[in-house]
Amino acid sequence: MTASATPEDIFAAAMTGRAPARLGLAVSGGGDSIALLHLAHAWGRAAGVGLSAVTVDHGLRPEAATEARFVAEICARLGVAHDTLRWTGWDGRGNLQAAARAARYRLMAGWAHERGIGAIALGHTMDDQAETFLMRLARGSGPDGLSGMAASHRRDAMIWLRPLLDLRRDALRAWLGQHGQGWIDDPSNRDRRFDRVRVRQALDGMRDIGLTVEGLAETCTRMAMTRAALDHLACETARSTGVIDRGDLLFDSAGLDASPRETRLRLLAAALCWVASAEYRPRLAALETALDAALSGRRRSLHGCLLTPDGPRLRISREPAAVRDTRAAPDRPWDTRWRFFGPKINGVQLRALGETGLACCKGWRETGLPRASLLASPAVWRGDELIAAPLAGHCNGWRAELTPPAEAVLQAIISH
Fold first, then answer.
1. Which residues pair with 317 in a beta bridge?
2. C-alpha pair distances (Å), 316 with each of 296, 334, 337
3. Among 5, 162, 193, 229, which lies 20 to 30 A Cα-Cα from 262?
4. What pTM, to 2 d.p., does this model score?
5. Same domain for 362 and 313?
């Protein structure tokens, strides 16, 4: 994009190839999100894309309700549908910002699914990218963390877009001023109790030594290229050393041991996330300890999974305790990865097989799956009665299938 490109040009370029039939907009009332709203409105009319906006009121500041009304009034003037969602789940424990962020994503994803919205755009800017880089650098992040925020990613079964990452915060506010549009500044953006605020203020003083927002954003881009190369190597290693055994992943231990340590850790993290249906990878220190122990012949538990030496291979399976209370209707996914097909029977549900169920499957040893894997496998229950356990050899007219199919897993595992 040339230096003379307008915010409209940059927004349109960022949305090229990513436009759903209907786009959601996360709008808080701040300058970045109000600019997002106006840019999306102009682009949406030209592209024929329907828009809906949403504001999340966390109930933590008395001004939040006023900010939501402010957004609603602008949306009404533009003819954009708007909803305000309220979060009331804070119990006063843990990290408030992390809890509020997770709730915000979860609420917006549910809102979008209900309205048939294919993706939600967020107002993160180049400044946010630079701040995120420095915060992750301070935490000792590697290439994944230092590659910054992705322009597109999946979370809570929703696609999230960041079409403003090539725009500076001040440029957006100047653009709003040229169009006579105001915004509301969140006072927490000046509260030095928060890491991001301190990093933002520190960045202002780093220009004298050549450390700029633009330079840090460019470093994020280069680190993202590095991450892609590392992912490619890990995918090749997965294809050459790994196989799917029903819901488990098995890797050739010698092949893993011969791979670069970074590749082993990257591959193991991705495998754990897939088996556990987890969004985030475990901490590096825990990952290193578990991998070293498993490759030395000792079974370990991590991230809701078991890492078990299995002859010349390393088996990664679901940990029985992690799914003990997991329930699903027979027509819904169980533990995210499993779908069941069978006769229609009233009053049944999907639960883990467990010790009680396994005792009813006399031929489970003939399946070739380890006992621990079967204990964590899905089964059909009616109350305390086991109806079917396909992975344990007790089919009774039912079958269980992985979603996505097993043959697609090794190719997709790193991008999980």
1. 306
2. 15, 18, 15
3. 162
4. 0.83
5. no
